[in-house]
Amino acid sequence: MIYTRHRPRRRALRCTMCGREIVRGEEYWFCSGRLACADCFLELARGELAPCREVCGREEWL
Ligand SMILES: [Zn+2]
């Protein structure tokens, strides 16, 4: 029997926003079915928190 060090390749993780591959050891965020790399985190966070967005002086709840 021949033993090799070859392991089955895992599917690459890709950022849902920009499509870039997330490499081993890199941080990413997974929220509401979307996966975001560090470069796209702000866009993801803005989208997720959009219902909480207010503009000073135009608040409807005041
Ligand atoms: Zn990205």
Give an overview of the whole structure.
This protein has 62 residues and is of the alpha+beta class. The chain contains 1 helix and 4 strands, in the order ββββα. The protein has a domain at 13-50. A hairpin with a 6-residue loop joins strand 1 and strand 2 (21-22). The model has no long low-confidence stretch (mean pLDDT 90).
- Fraction in beta strands: 15-25%
Mean residue pLDDT:
90
Q: Which parts are unreliable, with pLDDT below 50 for 5 consecutive residues or more?
A: none
Radius of gyration: 19 Å
The secondary-structure class comes to alpha+beta
SSE order, one letter for each helix or strand: EEEEH
Strand order of the largest sheet: 1-2
Task: Compile the SSE list and pairings.
Elements: E1 13-14, E2 21-22, E3 28-31, E4 34-37, H1 41-48
Antiparallel strand pairs: 1-2, 3-4
This protein binds zinc ion.
Quick recap:
The chain has 62 residues and is an alpha+beta fold. The protein has one helix at residues 41-48, and strands at residues 13-14, 21-22, 28-31, 34-37.
List keywords for this structure.
binds zinc ion, 62 residues, two-stranded antiparallel ribbon, 1 helix, alpha+beta, 13% helix
